[in-house]
Amino acid sequence: MMQISSDSATNKHSLINVMHRFIAAANNMDETIMVPSLLRDMPLEEQAASQTETNNNNINNCQNDDEVQCPSKQQRDMYEHYLLLKSIKNDMEWGLLKREMSSGASFLEMAVKQEEQQKSIMGALPLEDNADLERQFHFHLRGLFGVLSKLTLQADHLTNRYKREIGGGNFTR
């Protein structure tokens, strides 16, 4: 069994630390937001600002010209964003197989299916691509760091926005 050294766990730039920060932010969000339904129909601040600007720029075009596309009314609200962050956190904690297992297949069947899919993907790759796995790993690792950092900021932002809307702004993290 592989053991994680204490040096990597305390390194602030380690993947494990970035994952822990996101999970902590998501847990804080989940503990703070007692009534998630209050987030329904609340636009994210960034979307609200950009939508207002777009509406101001295109309002005459939308009324006078049928061919001009008006801004979409179907934008993600804070509730959907909350559910997305919770779902990602659950996938990180429990893995993707838990979601697939709810379809009724056994764990062994799911593992075999996943292994077959990986073999078919690896078999389709030329040998040159297999030899460059380190480059691919570093590419995906950088992407994972970036995504987890953004998700952590979004979870903190959602938590603080909920506190402001409910009136508990003095407790921001």
Write structural notes for this entry:
The chain is 71% helix and 0% strand. By secondary structure, the protein is mostly helical. It is globular. The two termini are 37 Å apart. Mean pLDDT is 75; it is low at 54-73.
In short:
By secondary structure, this protein is mostly helical.
Provide the gyration radius in Å: 22 Å
**Average pLDDT score:** 75
Distance between the termini: 37 Å
- How much of the sequence is in beta strands? under 5%
Overall strand count: 0
Helix/strand class: mainly alpha
**Percent of residues in helices:** over 70%
What characteristic shape results from the CA principal axes? globular
Please tally the helical runs, counting DSSP H or I stretches of 4 or more residues: 8
Characterize the main sheet: none
| Uncertain stretches of 5 or more adjacent residues | 54-73
How would you spell out the order of helices and strands?
Answer: HHHHHHHH
Layout of helices and strands:
Elements: H1 6-10, H2 15-32, H3 45-64, H4 78-94, H5 97-101, H6 107-124, H7 127-131, H8 133-166
Salient structural properties:
single chain; mainly alpha; 0% strand
